[in-house]
């Protein structure tokens, strides 16, 4: 018996597929909905109900309470600074180096490509990295974060492949018209590379926004901590031992949930605007290797 419809698809298989996807979607959304609902709930409701997806009484006190905390707003500002400056440095250096390595006439290109690939396999290690940063006098400086993560080797390799996929005839025509290498890069190559640049801008922005390990390693002053470090400190506190911070703020469960939402909100807002470039940029960058 033929179970396929006029389009050649099996209705039973499609139904099972949608069912599995729906279950997966609910499993993903349930924790997020719980965090959102909890951020708008009262402290009494946490004690009385435990788990819930819709609070009986809605209140935004947790958000107001959290935003009035100077330590939290300072950490948020630090995270914005690290993300904006760090991403600008990342995408600028990655684009310039990838463009140079994409040229077959570059002397020493094979050696440089090998060194880039080598760093993907072997790392310097935490202690040697810390000693180098210390000798450079970058402890308690954001430059310790910027320089240690200035170029991601994987992003560089993919962007290099993208530049190699640009027709050489286009560049030769520009040179014949008197276009210099810098002008060729800024006026022709980079505009054509916007899908790739947007993709890796998103990658770098997410990485910088979520920076944690290097921050606790190189930043000793709590006033310089980014949001992720402060968020961990907040979530680790409990209602019996460390329920207040140095400023006297008490972190109730609703306040902690509100902090999680505020921390994730910037990326949730930015991602939809860059999503259309994501698949296109990754596919174009993987045409050549």
UniProtKB/TrEMBL annotation:
Annotated PROSITE patterns: ABC_TM1
Domain ABC transmembrane type-1: 76-274
InterPro entries: MetI-like, MetI-like_sf
Subcellular location: Cell membrane
UniProt keyword list: Cell membrane, Membrane, Transmembrane, Transmembrane helix, Transport
A family per Pfam: BPD_transp_1
Chain segments annotated as transmembrane: 12-37, 75-99, 111-131, 143-163, 184-207, 254-274
Membrane topology qualifier: Multi-pass membrane protein
Alphabetical GO biological process terms: transmembrane transport
Lineage: superkingdom: Bacteria
One annotated Gene Ontology cellular component of this protein: plasma membrane
Record has Transcription as a keyword: no
Family classification: Belongs to the binding-protein-dependent transport system permease family.
The protein, known as: Carbohydrate ABC transporter permease
Organism expressing this protein natively: Paenibacillus thalictri
